[in-house]
Design goal:
By secondary structure, the chain is of the alpha/beta class. It has four domains: about 1-170 and about 175-220; about 230-260, no CATH class; about 265-485, 3-Layer(aba) Sandwich (Rossmann fold), CATH 3.40.50; about 505-700, Up-down Bundle (Growth Hormone, Chain: A). It is built from 26 helices and eleven strands. It has a seven-stranded mixed sheet with strand order 7-6-5-8-9-11-10, sandwiched between helices. A four-stranded antiparallel sheet has the order 1-2-3-4, covered by helices on one side. Strand 10 and strand 11 form a beta hairpin. Helix 16 (about 440-445) runs antiparallel to helix 17 and helix 21 (about 525-550) runs antiparallel to helix 22. The longest helix has about 55 residues, at about 645-700. The chain is globular. The model has no long low-confidence stretch (mean pLDDT about 85).
Amino acid sequence: MKSVHAIPRVVIATGISSIVTQLLVIREILAQFSGNEFVIALIFFNWLILGGIGTGLSHLVTRFHKKAGIGLLAWLSLLLASLPPIQIAAIRILRDSLFIHGASVGFYPTLAFIFFSIAPYCLLVGFVLPYSLFALRSESPDYPGARIYILDNIGDVSGGALFSFVLVFFVSPLQAVFFSNLPLLIATWLLFPAQRRYSPIVLFCALLTLSTLIAGIYFETKSLEPREGKLVYYHDSRYNRITVHQDMEQYTLFTDGTPVFSNQNMVMAEETVHYTLSQLENVRDILLISAQGGMMSEVEKYSPKRVDYVELDPAITNVQFEFGLLKKIAGLNVIHKDGRAYLIETDRIYDAVIVNLPEPETFQINRFYTDRFFGLVKEHLAPHGIYSFSMQGFDNYLAEPQRRKLSSLYNTVKKHFANVLLLPGQNVFFLCSDQPITTDIPHILDMKNIETNYISYYFEGNMTSERIKYLNELMDPTVPENLDNSPRLMKLMFLQWFTKFSTSPTGFMIVLAVLSLIYLARISREEFVLFSTGCMTMGCEILVIFAFQIFFGYIYLQIGIIVTIFLAGLLPGAWFGTRLRHAGAKTLALTDLFLIIMMGLLILGLLKGGDRLPVASFLIFGFLVSLACGFQFPVALNLRGDDNPAITRTFSADLIGAACGTLITSIVLIPYLGLVWAAAGLICLKLISLGVIGFTYEKDK
């Protein structure tokens, strides 16, 4: 009977390990794939599908081996503790071995990379949890299935809290792997019978696991060495991964694997600064949201009184100044805050606002290209002021996807400014003002006695009046505007992602739909309720993650807190559900109704204006949704009989539903319909579930 106490310790420790590992994998793949939020959904999808497969395998094993053994559980748990550092190292090394460093990667290669890199760990985690219950029931046949669910959630929440409030602030990723897997190693070693615990083979394997965890810390920096040049700086900040690569005399700063600053990109620095500031008679107050290497030297030529440079991450500004990527000039005021949040809070008025951000390939960046943001900029510009931002440029032919992106931005920003001019080139620059805008920039700079190395000599050869006219006349007034709740630009970027690699998401979605229909045709009504609840819960989690990016913009820091909150509600929900499990289908119907009401409240909040809501409101919403999900699991399990086959089938229904909700919400609902209609789509799913429960309840009566 000792295993009744030893196995629960392993289950809790496994929960701690699995959640910290999942969060580290999310941050790792975000860092390797340019901070693209779609990879979060792909990670969750693969994690859940693989976990469901592992759960099914555990049932098959126990069918052919009548009694689940504690010995096998101990060895598998030991293996599980050793896998996280290997998995993180594999992601780092294989990313640049299989794909070009810093280059965009297509949807299907990204999906395959994530699937195969996390498969060993996820399959094992999915196997171990139900197998732990089977091992417990081999000695205590009446051990309740819901209790293992609760123990797992205790570990999950503990792991999420440990990561979000301690590890993410004080240790590096592979140090976090060490500390989060040490409890699992100890609990597993204690799971071995006392007479075997000190045997040479057990001691050797335990020490080998410990050595693997320690080796991960030693090879932390070595695993990030670039294939060209050398790594001269590395830091995982709260907001992103920062690395600096040196290639001869050139220093390049990467954030999340994307090059964003270089000390030798003077063309972009000149274009960004002089296209904008040359339009002003006097330059006193400037707002820079992010910056380009060399920009400060160009800004200094206008002798401004004040330059507010807004950068979210203090670590980035420290690195820029350390490696000479930016120059400290008179009047420079560095503000470590999100640029959009700063504009909401400040009452300062500027002569010029320059946004120097990459194309909106992520929701975090897209929020600086929406109607709401353009309105904020207009509120903080003087009547004579000018605002500028840029998009990817073109040579001679403007492809249709890029034209529609530029048109959407043009139609959105034109609502706020009397004059909007697009200048073609290496980047397409938007100059926005209520005053007339001139294109003879070299002449203006000459009149101001401002010398440049590129614009003065090459502008007129590259920026002809015909090219400027051609570009501006191509803008399509029928393309919808880019809004917070309906990020049209993200849909276009998403489609361009597939177009760039001559692929389409249609085939994948058709295969997923067919497999889902086959699965749904084979499950019971109670399993369908859990499927729909898992689908809605993960759909809501993706909604909150994407909404958080749209409205607040730093998911790299908050992803752990959001995931932890969604896990935290499962625990009290399962506890209450265990006590009310005999109430039957009626309680399932009530919780479905509660979920529908919560989604309705979310829609009202989004329509009111998401960035006007406190951050806590999204977290409270997530907690309450997961509370309802946790409540339904023991009720549905009791209705299915609470035997071993019921355990695996209900676990699988929950996991597969969650996987489908993750993918459908992130790849179909949000990009194509926006946040509000995505939430409405999840409500429709729960209405179907409510109908199924009602039919079952009437039939039982």
